[in-house]
């Protein structure tokens, strides 16, 4: 009899454990899956906010943005790595969802592998709200907050249907021998402006940027070093509406300097720098930011933000190049 009671207790314990495991697993299955299994298998990404549509397609080792541009590969790779670990932090009540997404446009997100849609969902990026993101599998379905383990930032910011967000942030990328000339116009000190050129045998000459008069005595090593600085200069980001005010700056109405470069293949690019001003009197010389400047690039509609640290090597006056 005692053995029978022990057997019954064991059977009940095993049964209850099985039921508990089943309930735990069933509960886990109720949480929707937003992640992807293998980012390396994804060959197409679509982001659509109803106004702008971004499509990125993998072509060998690069990603093509909207069929015409090379996307910033490191950003796409980071997105796919994040997607492999993306998970649900918690559900969101219907009341919270309605209150927070009222003034925001959702972004429809889709990932494809070999033409087959592997994952899709809708996400709201809420930079000024708590929660900072809300995601749904369908527009009328339940809402959730997404998280990425170890990432303290706003997950919703990764799903931007903005072409500029995915474009490279390269300002200049001239390799050895690829740069033919640089014209530097110093607006505040016009007399220090110059145009420096390199000929087919790597001899550098310098001229006044305005009159064209030759300036003799060019230090060939300094000129060569100056051209090498144009090998890899990147800006911080494309600016969005409200960014400058959010940083506490206003933009100077007059440019500081203009740089025109011409490649060995004849391609041209112009960059105009505008100081960022702050303080009670933006007209004061002390109001100028020593950290950041705004650039307008000839082939871009949107201005960009760049640090003076990155620009400093190419901000010179003509006397820098003269042998002493």
Number of helices: 7
Structural class designation: alpha+beta
Compressed to H and E, one letter per element, the order equals HEEEEHEHEEEEHEEEEEHEEHEEEEH
Q: Could you estimate the helical fraction of the residues in percent?
A: 10-25%
Instruction: Return Rg in Å.
Output: 28 Å
Low-confidence stretches: 17-29
N- and C-termini, Cα separation:
109 Å
The biggest beta sheet reads: 9 strands, antiparallel
Mean pLDDT: 88
Number of DSSP strand runs: 20
Strands ordered across the widest β-sheet:
4-3-2-1-6-7-8-9-5
Number of domains: 2
Strand content: 35-45%
Shape: elongated
What features would you highlight for this structure?
2 domains; 324 residues; elongated
Give an overview of the whole structure.
It contains seven helices and 20 strands. The chain is α+β, with helices and mostly antiparallel strands. It folds into two domains: 128 residues; 152 residues, no CATH class. It has a nine-stranded antiparallel sheet with strand order 4-3-2-1-6-7-8-9-5. Strands 14-13-12-11-17-18-19-20-16 form a nine-stranded antiparallel sheet. A two-stranded antiparallel sheet has the order 10-15. About 4% of the residues have low confidence.
